[in-house]
Specification:
Blueprint lengths: L2 E5 L9 E6 L6 E2 L4 E6 L4 E5 L4 E6 L6 E2 L4 E7 L37 E6 L3 H12 L4 E5 L6 H6 L1 H19 L14 H25 L3 E11 L2 E6 L4 E11 L3 E3 L11 E2 L1 H5 L7 E5 L3 H12 L3 E6 L10 H10 L4 E6 L1 E8 L4 E7 L3 E5 L1 E4 L3 E3 L32 E3 L10 H15 L13 E3 L5 E5 L2 H6 L4 E7 L4 H5 L6 E7 L5 E7 L3 H13 L4 H5 L10 H11 L17
Parallel strand pairs: 9-10, 9-13, 10-11, 13-24, 15-22, 16-17, 16-22, 17-18
Antiparallel strand pairs: 1-8, 2-4, 2-7, 3-6, 4-5, 6-8, 11-12, 12-13, 14-23, 19-20, 20-21, 25-26, 26-29, 27-28, 28-29
EC number: 1.8.1.4
Organism: Aminobacter anthyllidis
GO biological process, one term: 2-oxoglutarate metabolic process
């Protein structure tokens, strides 16, 4: 037998952590993935599993020692036929007693004891939030995830990696703008490999954290794809080719969404969706973005900052139709340099993939033929529900294909809940998290309801746009009289000092009740500030409440208070409002 050393594996940010348990001694036989030691940091306890099976020859650690990556744990005589050692990894809780069974096994008999109290399908923000909340409430939880890591689209190929790249893009462009203020840097160069590594590191840090969170809560994570066998059981196609049937008491569907594929686009590696764009295959000389929503604008920002010449085509007559027109126009003026052509009220009619370029024909505004190296299709997303066969469980859908749920996130089948993108727009991670908490609590018998008045949205472009509630146009379309308070950052000390005097904060109030019903911000850190407007709407605040709340000076956040003062007609940071003269004659 050969002797193999087992060392402490990569643990993310954890280092110099204490050994609190040692589960082995010389002469013990250990199996693959058996826990050898347990470490404890100030944040979590971490199991270190065996990367191979064999017999312990020596143990080099003791309780109370502090270790980091690479510290020697033990020497093992590898068992014959035990296979090559694999790198040790931090593992989730071990599988529960339910064993894999052959596909096609008959459904469990009615009244069969469930394998878990709550089964969650999908490990994205809505799914893992539901699973962790249910576990915190004392439930036995199984979480089924089709991908190799938890986190879903948002964490792995969506919100998080895109924000990592947007951060880099914003810093690069801010550094370039500093030349106008007397600080000049050398022309930057882009190392794509390092940039990809940075993005991947951000994602790995968070996905590793989710592994630890699942283990601490004893949430069993099953890797595979799920299909409903009936209203009480799920068949899982496992990664190793086997299958497993899980009987559940309650289930929460959090399967997420997938990009809409435009049918006229050819199958070509130079035509990508958001996932492909985030892989940064190369920096194109010319790039086309199809779709003027959040994803399209964010990816246009990234690739433009990295040096691509970008065109954007949007079929509607405006970008971001859910945002006030004057706010979007502020953003558009600020980003005029970013696009060679920004075409609204236009559409792509055809794409021909040639050897050296993609030939695109458009109609509407700016109609013509243009040539590109890369095309991003960002024309929306659709719920990822087809493979689940939810009809077998008595779950119903609306006309747009979303799962129908009530305020407790229950479907037509009272034992099955649904959260996140599968339940409809807006498809946002923070909405899914709140729905996940509601579903988990309702599934355990608590009287929880999804009763949020508003859900905020943010486009993390440069500058950011954040909005919540009703726009001025939407309110007027409903016949509501409104009062509007707009504060231009050209009158903000912090806005001017930060070079953000183009920014704008806008609040919309109901003229009858004087309560705030909507708001939008365009400028740096807009996404960080929109929460105050959300809270004001939830609390039923009026302009006086907001305006008389003392905001720190000089900050960008105080523009919210000043916008409320504008609505009240009491703002002293802008010229006085000219009053109508009344003749007494």
């Amino acid at each position: 037998m050969s002797i193999t050393e087992i060392r402490v594996p990569e643990m993310g940010d954890f280092k110099d952590v204490a050994v609190i348990e040692v589960h082995i001694k010389p002469g013990d036989d250990v199996a693959l993935d058996q826990t050898l030691i347990v470490l404890e940091s100030d944040k979590a306890s971490i199991d270190v599993p065996s990367p191979l099976s064999g017999r312990i020859a020596s143990v080099e650690l003791a309780i109370g020692q502090r270790v980091s990556k690479g510290a020697l744990i033990a020497a093992v005589e590898a068992a014959a036929g035990g296979g090559e050692a694999k790198p040790a990894a931090i593992h989730e809780a071990p599988a529960a007693a339910a064993k894999p069974i052959v596909a096609g096994t008959p459904s469990p008999a009615a009244g069969a004891a469930p394998d878990c109290d709550v089964l969650v399908i999908g490990g994205g923000p809505g799914g893992y939030s539901a699973a962790f909340r249910a576990a915190d409430l004392g439930q036995r939880v199984i979480l089924v995830e089709r991908d190799a890591t938890l986190g879903g689209v948002c964490l792995n190929v969506g919100c998080i990696p895109s924000k990592a790249l947007l951060h880099v893009a914003a810093v690069k462009e801010e550094a370039e703008r500093l030349g106008d203020h007397g600080v000049v840097f050398d022309t930057p160069t882009v190392d794509l490999d390092k940039l990809r590594s940075f993005k991947a590191g951000v994602v790995t840090k968070l996905t590793d954290g989710l592994k630890v969170m699942a283990r601490l809560r004893k949430v069993e994570v099953v890797r595979g794809t799920a299909t409903f066998a009936n209203a009480n059981a799920l068949d899982i196609a496992l990664y190793d080719g086997a299958s497993r049937r899980i009987v559940f008491a309650k289930a929460i569907v959090a399967a997420g969404s997938m990009p809409v594929r435009l049918p006229f686009l050819p199958d070509d590696p130079r035509i990508v969706d958001s996932t492909g764009a985030l892989e940064l295959p190369f920096i194109p000389e010319r790039m086309l973005v199809i779709g003027g929503g959040i994803i399209g604008l964010e990816m246009a920002t990234v690739y433009s900052a990295l040096g691509a010449c970008v065109d954007l085509v949007e079929q509607l007559d405006r970008l971001l139709p859910d945002v006030d027109r004057d706010v979007v126009e502020t953003w558009r003026k600020r980003n005029a340099h970013r696009f060679d052509a920004l075409l609204v009220g236009a559409r792509v009619d055809s794409v021909v993939a040639e050897k050296d370029e993609l030939v695109v024909t458009t109609s509407g505004e700016g109609a013509g033929v243009r040539r590109y190296d890369l095309i991003l299709q960002a024309a929306g997303r659709r719920p990822a529900v087809e493979a689940l066969q939810l009809n077998a469980a008595g779950v119903t859908f609306d006309a747009k294909g979303f799962i129908e749920v009530d305020a407790q996130m229950r479907t037509r089948n009272q034992n099955i809940f649904a959260v996140g993108d599968v339940t409809g727009n807006p498809m946002l991670a923070h909405k899914a998290v709140h729905q996940g908490h509601v579903a988990a609590e309702a599934a355990t018998g608590l009287k929880s309801f999804m009763d949020a008045k508003v859900v905020p949205s943010v486009a993390y472009t440069d500058p950011e746009i954040a909005w919540v509630g009703m726009t001025e146009d939407a309110a007027k379309a409903e016949g509501r009289a409104v009062e509007v308070g707009k504060f231009p950052w050209a009158a903000s000390g912090r806005g001017i000092a930060n070079g953000a005097d183009y920014g704008l904060t806008k609040l919309v109030f109901d003229k009858e009740t004087h309560r705030i019903i909507g708001g939008a911000i365009v400028g740096p850190a807009a996404g960080d500030m929109i929460g105050e407007i959300c809270l004001a709407i939830e609390m039923g605040a009026d302009a006086v409440d907001i305006g008389k709340t003392i905001h720190p000076h000089p900050t960008l956040g105080e523009t919210i208070g000043m916008a409320a003062e504008v609505a009240e007609g009491v703002c002293t940071d802008l010229p006085p409002v000219r009053k109508k003269r009344v003749s007494l004659a």
